[in-house]
Amino acid sequence: MTTMNETNEKELLGMVLRIERSSIYDGEGFRTVVFLKGCPLRCQWCSTPESQSFQIETTAESVYGKQMTVEQVMIEVRKDSAFFFHSGGGMTISGGELLAQPDFSRALLRMSWNECIDTAIETSFFSTWEIVSSILPYVNTAFVDLKIFDDEMHRKYCGGGNKQILENLLRTNEIKKSDSEPPFRLVVRTPIIPGINDRAEELEQIGRFCSELRYLDHVQLLPYHRLGTDTYRKLGRRYAFPDLESPSAERMAECRAYVQKYIPQVT
Ligand code: SF4
Q1: Are 207 and 261 in contact (CB under 8 A)?
Q2: Would residue 197 count as lying in a domain?
Q3: Ligand 1 centre from 7 Cα, in Å?
Q4: CATH number for position 81
Q5: How many domains does the chain have?
Q6: What 3-state class would DSSP assign to 262?
Q7: 265 in any annotated domain
Q8: Which mean pLDDT values do the consecutive 10-residue runs of the chain (267 residues) have?
Q9: How far is the CA of 85 from the centre of ligand 1 (A)?
Q10: Which residues, including other chains, have CB under 8 Å from residue 196's CB and lie 6 or more apart?
Q11: With a 6 A CB cut-off, is 49 part of the ligand 1 pocket?
């Protein structure tokens, strides 16, 4: 039986950037990825600048963003149910920042969870624990960015400090899971930005911190890339690092070794 609350939840409106079907990069198996629009941070290397503003943006070539109800998104997600079943996939909510639209995100995750669709989130954790802890009960895998360990540097390069992010990551240790529930996994992601966060000291701090996380599955180091620079141009915005090169495979291996001093599971 559908309750009144569930009926109301289906009609909740959210600001959606786009929905991508059959992604293999954002969780287990085939994923339908729901990109939300709007983010409180401003990482200078952000590869999806069109996801930052909470408003619909129009350029000569594209319109970025549209309002959708929870049910309209779920209709899209359910189209891939057969793929989810056979590949172990499901729905991933990405951003922008889903925690900035908590009611909409929670409703989507809860509905997927109730329909036995695997759920993953890609988030900065830049929010209150009250919001984070209201969302996590409906999440199988949380990919959480920890871009820079030093608070001042995080503020300078990402547009906000990281104290809340670190606190929220640590507080995931408080989550209680019974044996009958699906497991919860945490994946910490760090983009390697040459000259900014690739010093040994910085990465060792990240490794040491992650070794305290009870639900950590692994740490993922992602090489910086310049994807998205064309979108800055379309939006009439300046890109901060037009000449920065991606780190080499050798440099990535060195960075992994810094983190692995404290935690073996680093990819
Ligand atoms: S948190 Fe993600 S979406 Fe937000 S500005 Fe940073 S990279 Fe872009």
Answers
A1: yes
A2: yes
A3: 32
A4: 3.20.20.70
A5: 1
A6: coil
A7: no
A8: 72 96 74 96 96 95 96 96 86 96 98 94 98 96 97 97 98 86 91 96 98 97 90 92 93 98 96
A9: 31
A10: 148, 153, 157
A11: no
